[in-house]
Amino acid sequence: MATSIAFDIRDDRRGDIGAILARSGSATHPHVQSLLLPNALLHDLTDAVHAVCTVHGNHPCMIDYAMARGIQIETLPWLIRSSSAFAHERAYLAGLTAAAGPLPPTPGQAQADTALTHLRQTLEMLANSDRRGCATGAVSALILDWRTIRQFLDQAAARFGLTPPINDMPEPLLDPPDEENALGLARARGFGATQMLIQHRGLWDLLEARASARRG
């Protein structure tokens, strides 16, 4: 999925996930900003809820894959907490998708379905990476970026008559690793975080194009 994103290789190499998110997170995307407006179109909110559910609503999700893979074993307790908390987010997504109703008619639905499936598979590949630090970087970026995604989900919930549950996602792993191969691990974490955010940018690019197509 093609998308535009600004890179700073220094942040990648340092594994500075906070800086990567500030530069390239969902909050900076114009379509997400439009979804957060009080007068966001219901069709756009509905389409976005369905898409996020397609990408992140399945079990196992990318966090579960990273936990099962166990490449960075010392992070396992954190991954277990993250997986448990995200299970509640999936339940929220399922209920919200049901409340949103059917997808709005949009040209190119089959192509969009294929793109979303590919996006989800790419996230699963990141989580299953053999590169130590890659999966935890991707999951950390997801946890941080989810805060923005949760804002628009909660806004959609209010429009659809639902009460949002508490977000219990744990804090991400942001501290630099303290070990002999810290540089390599930091680079892997930065890579994982950047690649995860690229997929989210692709998601918003797709939804933005769909919204434009509906307005014709």
3D architecture notes:
The protein is mainly α and 216 residues long. Helix content is 69%, strand content 0%. Helix 4 (42-56) runs antiparallel to helix 9, helix 5 packs parallel to helix 7 and helix 8 packs parallel to helix 9. The chain starts with 8 loop residues before the first helix and ends with a helix. Mean pLDDT is 90; it is low at 1-9.
Report the average pLDDT across residues.
90
Tell me the span between the first and last alpha carbons.
Answer: 22 Å
Q: Compute the gyration radius: what is it?
A: 17 Å
What's the total helix number? 9
Strand elements, count: 0
Described by the principal axes of the CA atoms, the overall outline is globular
β-sheet strand percentage: under 5%
- The percentage helix is 55-70%
Instruction: Spell the H/E element sequence.
Output: HHHHHHHHH
User: What is the structural class?
Assistant: mainly alpha
| Model regions low in confidence, pLDDT < 50 over at least 5 residues | 1-9
The biggest sheet, with number of strands, parallel, antiparallel or mixed sense and barrel status, is:
none
